[in-house]
Amino acid sequence: MTRLLGELDADVKERRYRPLPARRVFIPKPGWEEKRPLSIPAVRDRVVQAALKIVLEPVFEADFLPCSSGFRPKRDPRPSDRRQGTTGHRGTNRSGRYPGPVLRSGRRP
Fold first, then answer.
1. How many domains does the chain have?
2. Same domain, yes or no, for 70 and 103?
3. How far apart are CA 92 and CA 109, in angstroms?
4. Could you tell me the residue range of the domain that residue 51 belongs to?
């Protein structure tokens, strides 16, 4: 494990890191004969993804408005919908805009 982390650290710092192709398997759908695809990333790629999440999440969290819930950690998207007065029609609120996350700058991520 130490060797893997050392190699990944060097590859990322020297901009040599390239993700490996994900392993694609097909798993059965419950109650159906058909199967659905599932992609499984390599362990080294999951390590890099987790590290990036730890670094980037606080950066974006600082820019989100309190009324933005979406897929944010420890947030439920439903209360956000009620606060923004959604009508439930096509996922838009009364102003006709999608009630997704909004950054303080006014743009969407």
1. 2
2. yes
3. 17
4. 19-63
Q: Are residues 72 and 100 in the same domain?
A: yes
What sign results for the dihedral spanned by CA atoms 105, 61, 45, 21? Answer: negative
Q: For Cα atoms 101, 105, 109, give the angle at the middle one, nearest 5 degrees.
A: 40
What's the rounded Cα separation, in Å, for the pair 106 and 101?
10
Instruction: Kindly state the DSSP code that residue 41 receives in the 8-state scheme.
Output: -
pLDDT band per the 50, 70, 90 thresholds, residue 89: very low
The answer to whether the pTM exceeds 0.70 is no
**pLDDT tens digits along 11-33:** 888 999 999 999 999 999 988 88
Question: Same domain for 71 and 108?
Answer: yes
Q: Is the domain of 74 the same as that of 103?
A: yes
Strands (E), 5-91: 23-28, 35-40
User: Do 57 and 86 have their domain in common?
Assistant: no
- Main-chain phi, psi angles of 8, to 5 degrees: -65, -45
Please report where in the chains the tokens 């991520």 appear, as a residue: 109
> What pLDDT, on the 0 to 100 scale, is given for residue 107?
62
